[in-house]
């Protein structure tokens, strides 16, 4: 999966900026997460910028904490401040920066506001080598991490020893493969396994063993993100209560899947039914233009083979593709964007994650399957 990149100059220095695939986590449950994590670990980066949505900051803070753990030189960009202000949401950037230990810059990229401050923060982090403290876990896990980090010090190459220790405790095989690749010859598997067994015995005596360790570590990051959001974000009264009610309705086992099927079926029906009339109008108009073009070519004395090649071979194919594909896409993708803005798509991924993981996939891939529907519907209409 390729990543987009570009260059920019700031205060006489050149920087290369790489846009990684969008993700909410660095856990290796999808290709996007693996690409983002591997680039941070193996890409030789000097720093990271995590772009967060000010209207739903809590959802993005989990990624911020995971990024800080692997790349301490991090800048947090809180974007869409103008949209948040319209909704009555206020973000205290100073509080968030103090609690995270990294520069936090507010922007409204659509208006070009805050971009100069963001570039200055990136320069400061890179030039001064500002490193944020890693996120904290439960006391038994912290003790295990300290012991394991000390044993791994100097054996993880350019990667932070604490990050490597955390991935060993979690048993994240994808991250461990990346760790072995990044550490190279410095990595000593036997030494790591020996120390890991010892700290796991200590954790077992504290009531944490097996998958419970990774689950508690993930929970700690979620709890930390919630705490940060409550400290730095103020929203109109009632919003949190309304979100909790929606979560119970849209993610419960009894109502989540039926409501999801009804909603997606409704969007599919609206896409197909709503596209019929504009598709017909577009087809009629473009075919009329084709006939006028045919008359123009005949009047100009173009040979028959050229007229037929241009009208039958080029124009008619273009008309079918545009009239069949464009209207469904023009309806479906704005509707899908609205679902994303309302926070429903992450809830769909959460509801389906368990079922998809049984097929060695993740819940977010359900959204990719949904995105195929306008093309399939258009193909069916065209056929």
Automatic annotation (TrEMBL):
Pfam families according to UniProt: FeoB_Cyto, FeoB_N
Residues spanning the signal sequence: none
Keyword terms: Membrane, Transmembrane, Transmembrane helix
Alphabetized InterPro entries for the sequence: FeoB_Cyto, FeoB_GTPase, G_FEOB_dom, P-loop_NTPase
Coiled-coil parts of chain: none
Domain FeoB-type G: residue ranges: 1-128
GO molecular function (one): ferrous iron transmembrane transporter activity
Domain of life: Bacteria
One GO term describing the cellular component: plasma membrane
Transmembrane segments: 255-277, 317-339
This protein's name: Ferrous iron transporter B
């Amino acid at each position: 999966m390729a990543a987009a990149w570009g260059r920019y100059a700031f205060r006489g220095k050149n920087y290369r900026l790489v846009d990684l695939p969008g993700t909410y986590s660095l856990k290796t449950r999808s290709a996007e997460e693996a690409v983002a994590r591997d680039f941070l670990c193996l890409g030789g980066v000097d720093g990271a910028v995590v772009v967060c949505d000010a209207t739903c900051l809590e959802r993005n803070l989990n990624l911020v904490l995971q990024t800080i753990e692997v790349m301490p030189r991090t800048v947090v960009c809180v974007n869409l401040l103008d949209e948040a202000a319209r909704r009555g949401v206020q973000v205290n950037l100073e509080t968030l920066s103090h609690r995270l230990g990294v520069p936090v810059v507010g922007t409204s990229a659509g208006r070009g506001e805050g971009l100069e401050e963001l570039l200055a923060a990136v320069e400061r982090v890179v030039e001064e080598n500002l490193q944020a403290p890693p996120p904290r876990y439960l006391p038994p896990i912290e003790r295990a991490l300290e012991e394991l980090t000390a044993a791994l010090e100097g054996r993880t190459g350019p990667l932070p020893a604490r990050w490597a220790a955390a991935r060993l405790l979690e048993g994240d095989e994808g991250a461990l493969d990346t760790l072995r690749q990044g550490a190279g010859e410095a990595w000593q598997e036997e030494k790591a396994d020996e120390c890991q067994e010892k700290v796991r015995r200590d954790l077992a005596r504290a009531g944490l063993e097996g998958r419970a360790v990774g689950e508690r570590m993930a929970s700690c990051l979620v709890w930390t993100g919630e705490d940060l959001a409550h400290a730095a974000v103020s929203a109109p009264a009632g919003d949190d209560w309304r979100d909790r009610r929606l979560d119970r309705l849209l993610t419960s086992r009894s109502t989540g899947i039926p409501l999801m099927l009804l909603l997606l079926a409704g969007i599919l029906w609206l896409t197909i039914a709503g596209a019929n009339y504009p598709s017909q109008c577009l087809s009629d108009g473009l075919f009329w233009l084709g006939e006028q073009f045919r008359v123009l070519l005949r009047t100009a004395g173009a040979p028959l083979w050229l007229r037929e090649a241009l009208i039958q071979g080029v124009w008619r194919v273009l008309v079918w593709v545009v009239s069949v594909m464009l209207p469904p896409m023009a309806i479906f993708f704005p509707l899908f964007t609205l679902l994303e803005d309302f926070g429903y798509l992450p809830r769909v991924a959460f509801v389906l994650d368990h079922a998809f993981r049984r097929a060695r996939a993740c819940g977010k891939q359900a959204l990719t399957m949904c995105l195929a529907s306008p093309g399939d519907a258009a193909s069916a209409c065209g056929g």
